[in-house]
Amino acid sequence: MSDDKxxxxxxxxxxxxxxxxxxxxxxxxxxxxxxxxxxxARAAMESLWDAICSAAGAPAPYRSAGLPTPEQKFPTxxxxxxxxxxxxxxxxxxxxxxxxxxxxxCHGARGTSPAGTPHLAGQPASATxxxxxxxxxxxxxSAIMQPLVLELSDQDMRDxxxxxxxxxxxxISAIEPSEEGTPRLVRNGDPMRSIGACSSCHSPHAVRPAxxxxxxxxxxxxxxxxxAFRAGRRxxxxxxxxxxxxxxxxxxxxxxxxxxxxxR
Length: 264
What we know:
Layout: H1 3-6, H2 12-40, H3 48-56, H4 90-99, H5 104-107, H6 125-137, H7 145-149, H8 154-166, H9 184-187, H10 199-202, H11 219-231, H12 241-247, H13 251-262
Helix pairs in contact: 2-3, 4-8, 6-8, 11-12, 11-13
């Protein structure tokens, strides 16, 4: 049999081979140029053409970070940096103590909550200030907190944050140390799942602006916040740091982390 008869569409085996190769190539192209870009995109692609251009390496339309368009959504309106909070004087702390009297029902008389809400005593001022600003702007939705903070000025929020930062953290009750020790996710994270070590940001020795102290917080509160980050219900984390970390966590890992920090 000659080659011209083998490589001929009259040869049904050759025809079927070509058809299968074309189908595989088309399927691979759809996965590489459409499904993968959409699955890994931070926001939904506007169109099929956008997905194909993104996979092919075509540059996206230029958007200046300094001149955001109205439809762009940012996780917070707070500019976080090392000098975002000035030095707090006694007048600022005193005004914060007065303002904090309306917070005692949920956050305790000395900033240590008996009701499962966050402990504010000893929290870095920048961390409390950012959350107050996010509640006021709606970047962190809360039917309870938003109406309360809307009455506060920016200076009031700074004074409240300075007051709580000046308080010493109290323990509500003696809690047995975690028998499992320090979880691996706290020490090392999980690089294979792109999960950083919790201690790299939340260690008492890691001084990071607007980063809260987790030790001693309510187990229920910590679990709820991790679940909210994982589901995207809470989205006021800068550069999606918490959402990206929580996205790969299992329910058991979230429960373990919440228990570990609550027990400290």
